[in-house]
Each structure stands twice: as C-alpha cells, then as structure tokens.
Design brief:
The complex is a heterodimer of chains A (about 110) and B (about 120). Chain A has about 110 residues and is mainly β. Chain A is about 0% helix and about 55% strand. Chain A has strands at about 5, 10-15, 20, 25, 30-40, 45-50, 55-60, 60-65, 75, 85-95, 95-100, 105-110. In chain A, the strands form three sheets. In chain A, strands 2, 5, 6, 10, 11 and 12 form a six-stranded mixed sheet that branches. In chain A, strand 7 (about 55-60) and strand 8 form a beta hairpin. Chain A is globular and about 45 Å long. By secondary structure, chain B is an all-beta fold. Chain B is built from no helices and eleven strands. Chain B has strands spanning about 5, 10-15, 20-25, 30-40, 40-50, 55, 65-70, 75-80, 85-95, 105, 110-115. In chain B, strands 2, 4, 5, 6, 9, 10 and 11 form a seven-stranded mixed sheet that branches. Chain B is globular. The relative contact order of chain B is 0.33. The chains are: A mainly beta (about 110), B mainly beta (about 120). Chains A and B meet through strand 5, strand 6, strand 10 and strand 11 of A and strand 5, strand 9 and strand 10 of B.
Chain lengths: ~110, ~120
C-alpha cells in the first residue's frame, strides 16, 4: 500500500543554517507529492507540490524534487529564518487517498 | 485564507456528551476530509466524503460519525466523549477524490476540550 515516512524531529537550527527534512514514500502508480507546513496555532498550509518524476516544487525559498529512483521528496532550504519555525508534513496523493507523514517540528533560533 | 471554514473554533464539554463540528469546503470542492490532531498521535485521518458519499475511512472510532450534505458542507459528530478525545479536529477539502495534483486545503480547525 501507499505510505510516507519522514524524518523524526524535533530539529533545531540556527538562523541562516541549511535545512533538509527527509521524506521517502511507498506507492503504486504515479502519486503526487506535497509538503505542508503548520505554524503554531494554525491549520496546515500547502507549501509546495510535485506531480511527476523529476518535478521540482518550490515556494518561499523551500524546494523539493520528486525522485522516483530513490522514492524521495526531501525538503530543503538554503538559509532558514526564525519565521520558518513550524511543523512540516510530507504527503502523498495516490488513487483515492491522501497519506501524511508524522510531521517534523522545526525550531530556528536567532 | 484557504477558503475552508470550520465552526466552532473552540469547544469545551464534559465526558459523555455529544458534539457536532461543522465544515464548509472551498467553493467548487467536492471532497471533504476530517482529521484529528493530538499531541501524542500526530495527524490522524478519520474519514473522507466525496459529493455526499463516504469514500474512505481511516482511524475513526465507532463513537464518531460524519456526513456530507447536498450543499457539500460536512458535519463530524462525536458522541460519548472521553478525555482522550480532546484534540484539534481539522477539515480539509479538495477538488476531486484523488489523482495527480489533488492537493487538500485545510480549515483553521476546531479545538475540542473534554473535561
């Protein structure tokens, strides 16, 4: 069946550090992949998406590339800010269902 | 603003009671999803409706039920509430039921506290 596995948190980084949050998936067919972000006290917001292999999703300085050969969709940002502190969820849409990872909490300290 | 609305924003009730949470999807979206988010369990998928019919079921307890009405709004009913039901309940909507690019848009959530 379909599933998403993402890196355990919490992650703590200093401002301007490089961020990677790993996400791998298991799926039949050709799923779409997403990263969502949840800021404190809010609902989840779509951060970026990719719908086919080798697509790169990007938004607000974050990027993730759909790698079919490694079944991965790692989230990266070159220089994090305090305002990036949030919980990040990797997700997959395949067939009729949507699958979320367990979430990775990121704290960025000044 | 995602366009998904949820009411109420906060709900405080006692064990054994029953509550109803309401969700209005984005205009044009046919699918509604319900999720429970608690500190120790993360984001748990409960149930999905598509155009009025149940499409998928996740970890939804028998004490919980949902429905989607002809105008596409949805309600989640929680009964015989227990302390462990205290959580954030999110509704999300999407244009279709699945397939490529079928991203979900989340509402702001209802925070349920069971005392």
């Amino acid at each position: 069946g379909n599933s998403v596995t993402q890196m355990e948190g919490p992650v703590t980084l200093s401002e301007e550090a490089f961020l990677t949050i790993n996400c791998t998936y298991t799926a039949t067919g050709y799923p779409s992949l997403f990263w969502y972000v949840q800021y404190p006290g809010e609902g989840l917001q779509l951060l970026l998406k990719a719908t086919k292999a080798d697509d790169k999703g990007s938004n607000k300085g974050f990027e993730a590339t759909y790698r079919k050969e490694t079944t991965s969709f790692h989230l990266e940002k070159g220089s994090v800010q305090v305002s990036d502190s949030a919980v990040y969820f990797c997700a997959l849409s395949g067939g009729d269902q949507f699958y979320f990872g367990t979430g990775t909490s990121l704290t960025v300290i000044p | 603003d995602s366009g998904v609305t949820q009411t109420p924003k906060h709900l405080i009730t006692a064990t054994g009671q029953r509550v109803t949470l309401r969700c209005s999807p984005r205009s044009g979206d046919l699918s509604v999803y319900w999720y429970q988010q608690s500190l120790d369990q993360g984001l748990q998928f409960l149930i999905q409706y598509y155009n009025g019919e149940e499409r998928a079921k996740g970890n939804i307890l028998e004490r919980f039920s949902a429905q989607q009405f002809p105008d596409l709004h949805s309600e989640l009913n929680l009964s015989s509430l227990e302390l462990g039901d205290s959580a954030l309940y999110f509704c999300a909507s999407s244009r279709t039921s699945g397939g490529a690019g079928n991203e979900q848009f989340f509402g702001p959530g209802t925070r349920l506290t069971v005392l």
